[in-house]
Each structure stands twice: as C-alpha cells, then as structure tokens.
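Margin note: ligand = FE2/S2 (inorganic) cluster.
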Amino acid sequence: MRATSSTERSRLEPEPVVRRDFLGLASLLAAASALGFGLIGMLRLPRPAVMPSPSKKFKVRLPESLPLGTPFIPPGRAVALYRTGDGVYALSLVCTHLGCVVKPSGEGFECPCHGSFFGQDGAVTKGPAPKPLAWLKLTGSNGSYVVDQGSTVPQGTYWRA
Ligand code: FES
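Resulting structure:
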C-alpha cells in the first residue's frame, strides 16, 4: 500500500481554487457582463429617444354651450380659446417668464412656477412675467377653428367668421 503525503490530493478531494484565480475569473465575468449590457444598450440607440412633437397647427371645435368670456382649453394643448362679443381669439398658455404652462385661476391665469398672473386677454397683472401671453393665429368658422401655435398676432386681433 502506498502512503499519500499530506500535499497530494485525490480526485474526490480537488484542490481548492486559489484566491487569485477566483478574483481573476470574477473580474473577467464582470467585464464580459458590462460589455454585453453595453452592446444591448447600443442596439437601442438608433431609435429616437423622444416622441415627435405634435404639429403646431391643430383643429379645435368650440362647444356650442361655451359661455362668452369662458376659456376653452383643448386637451393636451397649452392654448385657451375665448368666444367674446368681438369674436374669437386664442391665447398661448406658455408663460413669458420661463416657459411654464399657466393654469386658469379666477378671472385669468396663474403661473405655477413663479406666481405671475395674467388677465383673460393675456395682459400681465402680476410679475415676474415681462410680457403678456401671446395671441395665436386663428382661422375657421362655425365653431370649428385651426389654431397655429407657431404664429402670433397682435393682442386684440379677434377672428370673426
Ligand atoms: S415661468 Fe411663469 S412666472 Fe416664471
């Protein structure tokens, strides 16, 4: 019978993994994972990261029952339309201070960002907004209108159809 020394190991009792080998293997695995996830991320790059912005021109139908002097805000748009005795006008709801969307408040609009107030005609009643809300180009008739958010008209330009 052969005597085994304490340094020899049998096949049933494998040599333990050396710590340096284990760390090397782990770092290799981590590098491969980072490379794999990086490649997956790069495959997603060609797709646009943002949705295309909606057209600046849009159609809107004013409700028949809309009372004079009451704003109508089409869903998803930062625009208010008013029907008055002088005609119809569209007001941009983008604050002239830093561009927040103003909200209806009392007789006009309030900016939630820095507290500017605007009247129904867009005039500034409380700063810090430096200019009135823009009046937008409007065309159409019989309660159906096309608003062009890319074109402004002088304040007081009513659309009569
Ligand atoms: S963005 Fe409206 S008050 Fe500043």
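The pocket of FE2/S2 (inorganic) cluster is lined by residues 95, 97-98, 100, 111, 113-114, 116, 128-129 (CB under 6 Å).
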